[in-house]
């Protein structure tokens, strides 16, 4: 309905905006109005009187104008809405609707291929001494080669499982080509249409070839066997993601892109969009061999980001913490002497090796207290901050569609790309540049990394106390408080035409914490109130699942702001109604609507949300009816007396619209409404002073009229026929009420009356056609002479001919009733209508 669309667009403005508009209108329009009147009086005085009386007239007029009543016209919301309808610039109609990911996906299977060949160096690699040795934080030379290989494989699988526990993991250690083929085909068969991750560690084989071939082994481990990337692609198919941790990994990416380009030129090429690649370095680069890095530094960044970040950024800080904890003079002297030699460039190899081995030993046995998924612990806090920082960096540097694909579509892919940003930062310090496909812009110098460094240092400053006393309370970092303050500053000075707030992803992360949740929701509500563009940004960054989950909470102080936020969301995107009903969120708003503590304006928002849930959504209508929404709305309408000054017009308006949407084209709901005597409750609202309330009441009454009857009920008699009689009586009563406002001064009300009458005519077109045919059919003199007397029956209006004007109240009883006896078609139905109408 046009009314529903108009009201939906108007309700998207906040009450604060309404008050501001009225204030501006009162001041500005009144001054213009008074100024124009003064100009006209001045001109009249100048033309009618001489120069002597001009000054006196002007003074008298100005004095009298000061005491005139300040009548302000055409400044209600409906007038502003009319001005908004006039196109004044580019349309924003296509602003939103792209925030929801096109297809949610998950990684169902992970294939891990490790080609380490421990104790045998590949022929094209010259290692420095000392060099990086750690694989998955395990020293492969500290145990037997086969045992080390198996341990590394199990550890890598566990590291991936932290990010996707529900995936199936399969590992191949130093495999042949046939074993890799079997692994890939098995993973694709199990994953079906889900994504498959292929991880390749090539530290024990030569670099990839210029054609993009990776190296495997023969069965006897005497030869390196190449595997073309085309074969790998044909086995894994799409969707898939590849991780290549080897030197010159960029050659594989280049070959893969060429393969996809060739496929796109010869076929549909749709698979290109479903393939993602992460490579440790560019085609001309070699992996870092420095001993302070692990050998698989790229894999360590992707799978253990917190540990790798602390090792790289705070390695000296951690070392000093352990020196303090051990209180050993020997360690202090050894570290001091080695550090002096290191910075002076006179590093002795044995001392350097000793320090690195000692540091590795300390770091490997060291565990940060807490759990990764517990934000109240040190490890959980660090992981939480890291997620917020990397999401913020990605949100601010990536196009929104690419951000949606890489950071919101798949949980495992999102985690890997967050960690990939860390890999770029760490490995670039070692003159190595990780690459990806799709290509990401450089992020290693983004200023949010400084915020991460500061937050990590503050968290780690509590480490000695936590190590000494595991039961000590962990003090949360001020990171999120500071970021919320920065977001609040942007709200005070930002606008649609300025750069979007970079803290928006952090605000969403803060919603996970109870201590900051209320403030974050209030700030988020302020941001959404800035316009549809702000709602679009919030939905694009991922607000929807957060606020949907918050509807399951029962915290009283969050109810009002959550209702406001959902009002903004549904005013922009009606499709969210499906998710609300699916998760049972509609009951949250019905309870709020029925609460007596909320203000009428706030309950009007809940009524708006309920109306959107039921708008054109049969499951939403059924769910709201099952929750008793009809009774709740009618109760509030009945409690408000006509023309009550305390009754909020906006609340009444949306109660009417909500009920209208509930029983629109829904027979069961219409029957419930008639049983609850809804028409009698709506009649007083037709005389409300606000035209929006009257129009909404007419809309609700109009949707109570059935457009048509079910064909399955045509042959049913008995009680069903009696039920139809009662329904027809109720509909005629509604029509009589609507005819009283058919000449309403508001065109909005008259339009809704016309629509309601059209619904009635369409629902009973068969009977009305017979009446119209009988009315216009040439009759005998006896019949024509009887029409005036029939027309005057029970009316006392003094009709002489059928063509004379008839008052509204006499149309149905004086004309339609008698004429039903004239037609010859469907005599039984006409006789029923005769009894009902008279």
From TrEMBL:
SUPFAM superfamilies: ARM repeat (SSF48371). It holds the Pfam family Raptor_N. InterPro entries: ARM-like (IPR011989), ARM-type_fold (IPR016024), Raptor (IPR004083), Raptor_N (IPR029347). GO terms for biological process: cellular response to amino acid stimulus; cellular response to starvation; positive regulation of cell growth; regulation of autophagy; TOR signaling. The chain crosses the membrane at residues 316-339, 351-368. It comes from the Eukaryota. GO terms for molecular function: protein-macromolecule adaptor activity. One of its GO terms (cellular component) is cytoplasm. Keywords: Membrane, Repeat, Transmembrane, Transmembrane helix, WD repeat. Residues 104-257 form the Raptor N-terminal CASPase-like domain. Belongs to the WD repeat RAPTOR family. This is Raptor N-terminal CASPase-like domain-containing protein.
């Amino acid at each position: 309905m046009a009314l529903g669309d108009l009201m939906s667009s108007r309700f998207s403005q906040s009450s604060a905006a309404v008050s501001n508009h009225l204030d501006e209108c009162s001041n500005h329009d009144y001054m213009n109005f008074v100024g124009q009147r003064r100009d006209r009086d001045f001109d009249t005085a100048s033309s009618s009187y001489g120069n002597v009386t001009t000054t006196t007239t002007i003074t008298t007029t100005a004095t009298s104008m000061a005491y005139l009543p300040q009548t302000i016209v055409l400044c209600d919301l409906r007038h502003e809405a009319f001005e908004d309808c006039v196109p004044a610039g580019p349309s924003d109609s296509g602003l939103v609707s792209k925030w929801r990911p096109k297809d949610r996906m998950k990684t169902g299977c992970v294939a891990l291929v490790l080609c380490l060949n421990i104790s045998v160096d590949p022929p094209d690699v010259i290692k420095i001494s000392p060099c990086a040795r750690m694989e998955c934080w395990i020293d492969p030379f500290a145990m037997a080669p086969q045992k080390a290989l198996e341990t590394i494989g199990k550890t890598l699988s566990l590291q991936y499982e932290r990010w996707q526990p529900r995936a199936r993991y399969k590992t191949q250690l130093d495999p042949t080509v046939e074993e890799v083929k079997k692994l890939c085909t098995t993973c694709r068969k199990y994953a079906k249409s889900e994504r498959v991750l292929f991880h390749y560690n090539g530290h024990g084989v030569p670099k990839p070839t210029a054609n993009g071939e990776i190296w495997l082994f023969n069965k006897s481990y005497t030869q390196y066997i190449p595997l073309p990337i085309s074969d790998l692609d044909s086995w894994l198919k799409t969707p898939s993601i590849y991780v290549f941790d080897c030197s010159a990994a960029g050659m594989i990416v280049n070959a893969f892109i060429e393969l996809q380009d060739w496929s796109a030129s010869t076929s549909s090429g749709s698979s290109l969009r479903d393939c993602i690649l992460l490579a440790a370095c560019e085609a001309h680069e070699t992996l870092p061999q420095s001993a302070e890095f692990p050998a698989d530094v790229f894999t360590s960044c992707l799978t253990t980001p917190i540990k790798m970040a602390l090792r790289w950024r705070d390695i000296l800080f951690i070392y000093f913490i352990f020196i303090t904890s051990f209180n050993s003079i020997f360690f202090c002297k050894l570290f001091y002497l080695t550090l002096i030699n290191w910075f002076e460039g006179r590093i002795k190899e044995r001392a350097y090796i000793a320090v690195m081995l000692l540091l590795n030993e300390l770091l490997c046995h060291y565990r940060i207290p807490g759990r990764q998924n517990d934000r109240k612990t040190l490890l959980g806090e660090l992981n939480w901050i890291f997620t917020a920082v990397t999401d913020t960096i990605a949100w601010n540097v990536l196009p929104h569609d690419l951000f949606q694909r890489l950071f919101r579509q798949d949980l495992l892919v999102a985690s890997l790309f967050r960690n990939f940003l860390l890999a770029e930062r760490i490995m670039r310090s070692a003159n190595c540049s990780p690459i990806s496909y799709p290509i990401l812009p450089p992020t290693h110098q983004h200023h949010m990394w400084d915020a991460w460094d500061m937050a990590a240092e503050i968290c780690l400053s509590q480490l000695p106390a936590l190590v000494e006393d595991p039961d000590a309370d962990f003090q949360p970092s001020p990171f999120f408080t500071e970021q919320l303050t920065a977001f609040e500053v942007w709200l005070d000075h930002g606008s649609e035409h300025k750069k979007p707030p970079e803290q928006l992803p952090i605000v969403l992360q803060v919603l996970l914490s109870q201590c900051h949740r209320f403030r974050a929701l209030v700030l988020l509500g302020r941001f959404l109130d800035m316009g549809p563009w702000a709602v679009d940004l919030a939905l694009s960054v991922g607000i929807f699942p957060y606020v949907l989950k918050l509807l399951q909470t029962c915290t009283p102080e969050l109810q009002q702001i959550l209702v406001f936020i959902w009002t903004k969301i549904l005013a922009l995107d009606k499709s969210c109604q499906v998710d609300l009903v699916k998760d049972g969120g509609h009951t949250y708003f019905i309870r709020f609507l029925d609460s007596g503590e909320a203000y009428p304006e706030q309950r009007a928002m809940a009524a708006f949300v309920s109306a959107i849930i039921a708008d054109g959504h049969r499951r939403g209508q059924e769910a709201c009816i099952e929750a008793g929404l009809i009774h709740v709305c009618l109760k509030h309408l009945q409690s408000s007396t006509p023309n009550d000054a305390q009754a909020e017009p906006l609340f009444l308006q949306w109660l009417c619209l909500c009920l209208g949407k509930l029983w629109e084209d829904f027979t069961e709901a219409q029957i419930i409404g008639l049983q609850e005597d809804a028409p009698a409750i709506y009649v007083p609202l037709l005389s409300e002073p606000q035209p929006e309330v009257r129009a909404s009441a007419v809309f609700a009454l109009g949707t109570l009229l059935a457009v048509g009857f079910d064909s399955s009920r045509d042959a049913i008699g008995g009680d069903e026929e009696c039920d139809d009689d009662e329904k027809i009586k109720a509909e005629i009563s509604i029509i009589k009420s609507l005819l009283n406002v058919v000449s309403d001064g508001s065109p909005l009300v008259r339009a809704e009356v016309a629509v309601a009458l059209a619904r009635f005519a369409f629902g009973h077109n068969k009977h009305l056609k017979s009446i119209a045919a009988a009315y216009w059919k040439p009759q005998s003199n006896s019949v024509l002479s009887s029409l005036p007397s029939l027309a005057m029956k029970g009316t006392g209006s003094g009709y002489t001919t059928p063509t004379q004007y008839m008052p509204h109240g006499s149309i149905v009883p004086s004309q339609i009733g008698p004429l039903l006896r004239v037609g010859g078609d469907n005599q039984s139905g006409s006789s029923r209508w005769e009894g009902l109408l008279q």
